[in-house]
Design a protein that fits this description.
alpha+beta, Neutral Protease, domain 2, Immunoglobulin-like, 2 domains, ten-stranded mixed beta sheet, four-stranded mixed beta sheet, binds zinc ion
Length: about 500
């Protein structure tokens, strides 16, 4: 995500500098984390990733012997996600009435139990659930706050696959998220356009899910809306059917793993503009018709930015297609929804475009296992977007000296230990970005690029942690380089500008 609104940035800076009593959150304890980036911890004969997964949170004996639980142990969001199962696939059938802001939907969720389940949770905010089935049998359900608690007719055996079907309807309500104090997240309906910007917790505003980045899954979106509107979602558009009743059903398939906060649909008046990279990757951008020609010029750098990151990471763009969608109004932000970043009409500058493309590698392919590690998304996108402009000899809107100046007049806590209300604050973006700059200055371009490539190779399609990044820095560049990284990641004291 990148906020471009000047007012927002000023508010952050003011809040930070005038708040000496801000709580310092200790770094997350990850006692079972493998820090060498090699094999995940093995529990009960099944390999599971070690951070944020339910299997690591059930050993304290104070949870029910049978049944899923609320939360996966995220230090910032204790009730985010659910224990006892992992989702393999979401198939979302969404009937969208944009004018009435009504959703009539069925979510079919394919999952695998990691223990025997007599009940289990999904995350869902508001909306009316009309029926729930598990493996074709009606199930009973309760609602408690933002939890949908399901009791199947028969307990689900550990290690077995199961399918949940949830019918629901109503008007989706955006979520008040403590990590995004000045805005709401999730489903939005504005000026005849539906769009989704969910990071971090907003997915529960529009579909039931295991709403935590530690559980990634594939997705299919089957969207029915008025035929004069265009329906866009993540992945590849597979089908477009005119229903003959004034509605069209559009099917999008995201066949690579995706975390729930990056799932998005957009329904409105958009015009498709297509191109390809030199390697033949399809770029499909959706623009408001009135601005399409100008926006096509703005986004022309997309292919070149993708080429740059493929070279930096030594790896192909992670997904089948890429594109951006621009809303017909200002939002003050852009967000890297997987394969289809969303930009407000006021957030189409070259730096922001590069930032959201960068996130397709850092954030989308390599997701964080805990929200405390968000600098691995935003610090990377901030600094590596700068590197694109530096490499191409172009003016960069954000550069190291400017980041450092902003940090000196702002809030200097280490980005790996920010409190929740600084999740999208200056430290995560700028001190996180300066962490990479300091590392690059210390080890040189070749070792820096090797660290980036190894970090990506080991975590592509999966999740990463600060500990894994630290271990790779030490492995490739040694203990002194790790000390440099740590001096930027932790502590209240801002290190000197790296020379
Ligand atoms: Zn970002």
């Amino acid at each position: 995500m990148r906020r471009t609104s000047v007012a927002f940035l000023l508010v952050i800076a003011a809040a930070c500098s005038s708040d000496p009593d801000v709580t310092v959150v200790e770094p997350v304890s990850t006692e079972t984390t493998s820090t060498d980036g090699s094999e995940p911890v093995v529990t009960d004969g099944e390999p599971v990733d070690s951070v944020g997964e339910p299997s690591t949170t059930i050993s304290d004996g104070d949870v029910p012997a049978v049944g899923g639980r609320d939360g996966v142990g995220d230090s910032f969001y204790p009730s985010m996600g659910n224990g006892g199962y992992f989702v393999d696939d979401y198939s979302l059938n969404l009937d969208v009435d944009v004018d009435g802001n009504e959703l009539d939907a069925t979510a079919t969720i394919s999952a695998t139990a990691s223990e025997e389940l007599s009940t289990f949770h999904l995350d869902l905010h508001g909306l009316e659930v009309t029926s729930v089935g598990v493996d074709g049998q009606p199930a009973t359900f309760d609602r408690e706050a933002d939890e949908l608690i399901i009791t199947p007719a028969e307990p689900i055996a550990s290690e077995s696959a199961f399918e949940v079907e949830v019918d629901y309807e109503g008007t989706p309500e955006p979520i008040a998220d403590p990590g995004v104090p000045l805005d709401s997240v999730g489903w939005q309906n504005r000026e005849g356009t539906v769009y989704v910007a969910s990071e971090p917790s907003g997915a529960k505003s529009w579909f039931p899910s295991n709403n935590h980045p530690s559980d990634k899954a594939t997705f299919t979106f089957v969207i029915t809306a008025d035929s004069d509107l265009t329906a866009v979602a993540n992945g590849v558009r597979e089908d477009l059917v005119d229903n003959g009743d004034g509605t069209t059903t559009t099917t999008w398939n995201m066949s690579d793993q995706m975390t729930t906060y990056l799932a998005a649909i957009y329904v409105g008046d958009f015009e498709l503009r297509e191109s390809t990279t030199d390697d033949g990757l399809r770029i499909r951008n959706y623009f408001p018709p009135a601005f399409a020609d100008d926006l096509e010029d703005d986004f022309e750098l997309t292919a070149d930015v993708i080429d740059f990151y493929e070279e930096l990471f030594g790896a192909d763009y992670p997904f089948a297609e890429y594109g951006s969608i621009v809303l017909p109004f200002s939002t003050g932000f852009a967000l890297e929804n997987q394969t289809i970043s969303v930009h407000g009409l006021d957030a189409t500058d070259p730096y922001t475009i590069a930032h959201e493309i960068m996130h397709q590698w850092a954030g989308n392919s390599v997701t964080v296992a805990q929200w405390q590690d968000i600098w691995l998304l935003e610090g990377f996108a901030t600094y590596l977007a700068y590197m694109y402009f530096e490499d191409r000899g172009l003016n960069s809107q954000i550069e190291p000296q400017g980041m450092y100046s902003a940090l000196r007049s702002g809030f200097s806590i280490g980005p790996a230990e920010v409190p929740i209300d600084e999740l999208f604050g200056l430290s995560v973006y700028f001190r996180g970005g300066m962490t990479l700059h300091a590392l690059r200055v210390d080890v040189g371009d070749d070792a820096f690029q090797e660290i980036m490539a190894v970090y990506y190779e080991r975590n592509a399609g999966e999740r990463a942690s600060t500990e894994e990044f630290q271990a790779i820095v030490e492995e490739i560049a040694g203990a002194d380089a790790l000390d440099v990284v740590n001096s930027w990641l932790f502590g209240l004291e801002l290190p000197p500008f790296p020379e």
